[in-house]
Amino acid sequence: MPYIHIVTSRRLDAAQTEALRRCALNAAAQMGKPPERVMVHIESGAALTLGETAEECAFCDVRVLGAATAEACNRFAARLSGDIAHFAHTRPGGVYLSLTKMALCYPDGNLPPGMCPGT
Fold this sequence. Notes:
The chain is an alpha/beta fold. The chain has helices at residues 14-28, 70-88; strands at residues 2-8, 39-43, 58-65, 95-102.
């Protein structure tokens, strides 16, 4: 269950937002995550700045439940960062991506089978 939250300073139209959503789903496959389990939240046109510049920038917060190797996470981050940069029109270094591996997630308020708190 990845949760992918993308925020861009550049306003995206509906077609660009949908294309970026598809890119996020495809990138999650790099970690072996099926598209039907990926939650994507995209905010565009945010009051987001990088330093003192007025250049376009973006932030991506990713939370992953379940095993994913460091190599898979690196592939995912590189692919999605590149896609975000493309749509958000950022310069190199203008996309920050944070990936957190979650210990627990409660879909609909319940732990998935085989998971237990405190482990």
